[in-house]
């Protein structure tokens, strides 16, 4: 039951000069709940994208380690949670009724007519207006008062942490590799669940980043990064095998290469190398009506990029010409990739060298001009010092 009687409500309305005809059919009296607390609940503002994710069965997860900012993740997106303070008092209520919602109005009136069905509202009082209409009065409890809420802002997560997490357990081709991981606590197998716990990002974003930026394999449900030196060794042997078979950059038979290198590397590693550094010619041969589905061509972009990364990771300092020379020498002979390297990665390298030369000539000329002016000034002072003040 409302804590105010109908007589009290009439006096309050009269003092405020409010007619009962101006009231909506249902009024609500707000009081503090018996279990009123200070900070048990937090308000979270939701964008339409987050609401839509609920409609398709997604779940929301708050991720982040102790030193991270908390992020809110759906299956596909990541939102940074910003703490927003407001000067207004925000009331957290058990329930509330919006009179302009006709369906909710009928529901509220039904709840008021039978207090036994819902303990959140008291038995309704009725306040009869001048025209004879009824005003229902319900009681609503305040659970908490807050002056802040969390606002989700969509961000592009920083996924560089994935490399640091996966590096310690990188696969190096050793036969004792799995046993070594089992013995060392800091080399525990990394699964997708562990990545989701340690990386503040959605599952889809983590998977896309691994697919496009890292070279990984899956062994017994664990995600393993390929050690860079081992991958370079395996790729070099694949390229040497292709060269020994006198094949060009196209029409490379994957099964033949795998058979030739059997025993040197696991088959799944060789297949991954073809996936990362070669392009399948299936579509091309299907269009020609050929039944061969095992032919590949070299992916010049990926091969040259990886070989360049290997050179730079040695820690040596290079000038641009020296780096291009070393880069070109790392490419298999006779594959015509050196020209591709220059055209793809340094299309304006010759222009840059010419521009640098012109700038150097201008600076040298300027330096000699300054020397000449100083010599002329010195000669004038020696001949007649007063000439400088004319």
Verbal overview:
This protein is an alpha+beta fold and 390 residues long. Helices cover 43% and strands 18% of the residues. The chain contains 15 helices and eleven strands. It has helices at residues 6-15, 48-55, 102-113, 161-166, 177-183, 192-198, 203-213, 228-244, 254-260, 267-277, 282-287, 300-312, 320-330, 338-345, 349-383; strands at residues 26-32, 61-63, 71-73, 78-93, 125-128, 134-155, 216-219, 222-225, 252-253, 278-280, 295-298. Strands 1, 2, 3, 4, 5 and 6 form a six-stranded mixed sheet that branches. α12 crosses α13 (320-330). It starts with 5 loop residues before the first helix and ends in a 7-residue tail after the last helix. The relative contact order is 0.09. Residues 114-132 have low confidence and may be disordered.
Briefly say what this structure is.
This protein has 390 residues and is α+β, with helices and mostly antiparallel strands.
Q: What is the gyration radius calculated from CA atoms?
A: 38 Å
Strand content: 15-25%
Low-confidence stretches: 114-132
Average residue-wise pLDDT: 75
* Overall number of strands: 11
Query: Which shape, going by the Cα principal axes?
Result: elongated
Helix count, DSSP H or I runs of 4 or more residues: 15
Query: What is the straight-line distance between the termini?
Result: 106 Å
Helix proportion range: 40-55%
- Could you give a short account of the major beta sheet? 6 strands, mixed
Helix-strand category? alpha+beta
Secondary-structure element string: HEHEEEHEEHHHHEEHEHHEHEHHHH
């Amino acid at each position: 039951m409302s804590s105010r009687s109908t007589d009290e409500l009439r006096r309050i309305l009269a003092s405020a000069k409010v007619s009962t005809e101006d009231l909506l059919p249902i009024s609500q009296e707000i009081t503090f709940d018996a279990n009123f607390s200070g900070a048990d609940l937090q308000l979270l503002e939701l964008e339409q994208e987050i609401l839509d994710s609920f409609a398709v069965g997604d779940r929301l997860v708050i991720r982040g380690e102790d030193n991270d900012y908390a992020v809110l993740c759906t299956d596909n997106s990541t939102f940074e949670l910003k703490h927003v303070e407001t000067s207004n008092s925000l009331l957290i209520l058990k329930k509330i009724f919006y009179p302009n919602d006709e369906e909710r109005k009928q529901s509220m009136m039904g709840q008021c007519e039978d207090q036994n069905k819902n303990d959140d509202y008291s038995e309704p009082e009725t306040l009869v207006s001048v025209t004879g209409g009824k005003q229902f009065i319900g009681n609503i409890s305040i659970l908490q008062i807050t002056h802040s809420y969390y606002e989700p802002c969509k961000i592009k997560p920083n996924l560089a942490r994935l490399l640091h997490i996966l590096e310690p357990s990188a696969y190096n081709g050793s036969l004792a590799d799995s046993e070594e991981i089992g013995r060392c606590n800091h080399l525990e197998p990394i699964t997708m669940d562990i990545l989701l716990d340690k990386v503040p990002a959605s599952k889809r974003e983590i998977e896309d980043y691994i697919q496009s930026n890292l070279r990984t394999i899956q062994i017994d449900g664990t995600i393993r990064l390929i050690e860079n030196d081992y991958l370079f060794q395996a790729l070099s042997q694949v390229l040497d095998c292709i060269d020994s078979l006198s094949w060009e950059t196209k029409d490379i038979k994957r099964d033949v290469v795998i058979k030739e290198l059997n025993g040197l590397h696991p088959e799944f590693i060789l297949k991954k190398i073809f996936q990362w550094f070669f392009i399948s010619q299936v579509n091309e041969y299907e269009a020609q009506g050929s039944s061969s589905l095992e032919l590949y061509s070299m992916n010049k972009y990926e091969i040259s990029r990886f070989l360049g990364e290997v050179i730079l990771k040695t820690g040596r300092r290079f000038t641009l010409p020296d780096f291009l020379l070393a880069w070109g020498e790392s490419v298999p002979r006779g594959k015509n990739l050196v020209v591709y390297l220059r055209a793809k990665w340094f299309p304006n390298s010759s222009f840059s060298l010419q521009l640098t030369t012109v700038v150097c000539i201008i600076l040298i000329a300027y330096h000699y001009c300054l020397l000449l002016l100083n010599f002329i000034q010195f000669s004038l002072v020696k001949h007649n010092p007063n000439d400088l003040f004319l």
